[in-house]
């Protein structure tokens, strides 16, 4: 038996609209998340190029985009018997910088999170160490980098130490605040169920503190990465910070700009990766 259902034109239009709605929503979302950032980059490059060709400033200080691109190509190839910049390709410089940042951040964040857990759990430890932590946060990296060079030399030790010291305070402060803000009701409920102090910390305090701790970790990575040029002031080649410092000595603005762009783009990628990790490890963030 065949069943015929009469569908009015209004219902047909409604169904068609319902089918098109998700597609339109996806297009709007794509435009917001991809289109606007791309548009902002295009506008920035257009304005920069207009300023460069206007002659308001010397090309030594504001080189054209083509000149910057040529510098990038030279850093990517062997030209006139010279490998990249200072004997290394740009990805080799970037690799060394990322390796230093990774080691320094791991040390600084690990120490900061552990310190934050202790400070957030033990009030007298917080009162004892918080002034020193605030003092360290207030110091710009260059303020103590030269002291580290005097103490540790000009090899890798002062660079990694500087990055670790830059990464430690944000992680420690965020973790301390997150642990202190753990709802008392959750702790009391866990104790009422017979949880030991260790179980309360591992099953209640740490999960509750993880969202803010991850925020502190992201801040730590950003601050450490912004300190990389200072960390590579001495004996920084290979390294992007060392390239920027060396090129600035000779007013080689195109290479400086290439270094800045590489640092910025790699920083964006690292932050995006941290966001993905945070989303997977802390899916309850923002949920009551």
UniProtKB/TrEMBL annotation:
One Pfam family of this chain: BPD_transp_1
Domain ABC transmembrane type-1: 94-274
Location within or outside the cell: Cell membrane
Transmembrane annotation, as ranges: 30-51, 71-90, 102-122, 134-154, 161-181, 255-277
Gene3D superfamilies per UniProt: MetI-like
Membrane-topology annotation of the record: Multi-pass membrane protein
Keywords attached to this entry: Cell membrane, Membrane, Transmembrane, Transmembrane helix, Transport
Alphabetical list of InterPro entries matching this protein: MetI-like, MetI-like_sf
Example GO BP: transmembrane transport
GO cellular component, one term: plasma membrane
Family membership noted in the UniProt record: Belongs to the binding-protein-dependent transport system permease family.
Protein name, per record: Putative ABC transporter permease protein
């Amino acid at each position: 038996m065949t069943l015929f259902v009469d569908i009015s034109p209004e219902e047909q239009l409604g169904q068609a609209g319902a089918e098109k709605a998700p597609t339109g929503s996806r297009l709007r979302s794509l435009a917001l998340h991809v289109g606007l950032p791309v548009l902002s980059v295009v506008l920035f490059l257009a304005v920069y190029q207009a300023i460069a060709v206007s002659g308001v400033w010397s090309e030594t200080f504001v080189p054209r985009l083509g000149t910057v691109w040529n510098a990038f190509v030279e850093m990517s190839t062997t030209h006139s018997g010279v490998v990249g910049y200072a004997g290394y390709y740009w990805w080799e410089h970037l690799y060394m910088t990322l390796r230093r940042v990774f080691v320094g951040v791991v040390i600084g964040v690990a120490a900061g999170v552990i310190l934050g857990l202790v400070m957030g759990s033990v009030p007298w430890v917080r009162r004892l160490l918080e002034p020193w932590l605030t003092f360290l946060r207030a110091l710009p990296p260059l303020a103590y980098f030269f002291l580290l060079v005097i103490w540790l030399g000009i090899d890798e030790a002062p660079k990694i130490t500087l990055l670790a010291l830059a990464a430690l305070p944000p992680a420690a402060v965020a973790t301390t605040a997150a642990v202190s803000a753990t709802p008392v009701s959750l702790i009391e409920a866990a104790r009422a169920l017979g949880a030991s102090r260790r179980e309360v910390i591992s099953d209640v305090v740490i999960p509750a503190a993880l969202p803010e701790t991850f925020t502190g970790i992201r801040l730590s990575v950003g601050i450490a990465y912004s300190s990389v040029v200072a960390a590579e002031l001495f004996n920084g080649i290979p390294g992007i910070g060392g390239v920027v410092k060396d090129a600035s000595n000779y007013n080689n603005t195109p290479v400086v700009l290439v270094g800045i762009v590489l640092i910025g783009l790699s920083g964006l990628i690292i932050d995006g990766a941290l966001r993905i990790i945070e989303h997977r490890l802390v899916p309850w963030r923002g949920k009551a």
